[in-house]
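re: that chain from earlier
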Amino acid sequence: MSTASAPQDADVSLYLHAELLPNIRQITLYVSLPQTPTLEGTRPEIQLSESCKSVTVSLPEPFDHVAETIKLPARVTDTTRRTLNINTAASSPPKACQLQL
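^ sequence. v structure.
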């Protein structure tokens, strides 16, 4: 019996790391995805919380149920929201995203 193969989303998970860089008043956010063909070209969506103290990263369809939230090591400015919108709209995925304190 043959069935159409659905994306193996059981193995899809996001790994987040936020690093405080106090000398330059920035937080660097790292987002890691597993290297699988089903995620080729997938661009995560990054949203800053209303309190500016945490970030939620989610994937688009068909992986829209995959999301992780990380509490930031310091509160960031509301200007960071615009920076995140620009970075997530760029054509090539950034390796790290820098947030202003």
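The longest strand covers residues 15-21.
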